[in-house]
Amino acid sequence: MADLESKLLGEKLHYYCSSSDEDEPMLDRDPPKQSKSDWDGTSSNTGPKGVLNDWEQYKRQQSAQRIQREKDVLKQINDMALTCKSEAEELDDQFLAEYRKKRMKEMMAKTQEAPEFGKVFDLLTGDDFLVAVENENPYVTVIVHVYEHNVPTCSIMNSCLKVLCREFQKTKFCKLIGSSAGMSLNFKMCGVPALLAYRAGQLVGNFVRITDELGDDFYAGDVENFLIEHGVLSDKSCIPSIMTNENDNDDDI
Question: Going from the N-terminus, what domains does the chain have, and what CATH number goes with each?
Answer without folding.
Answer: 49-80+89-113 (no CATH), 120-230 (3.40.30.10)
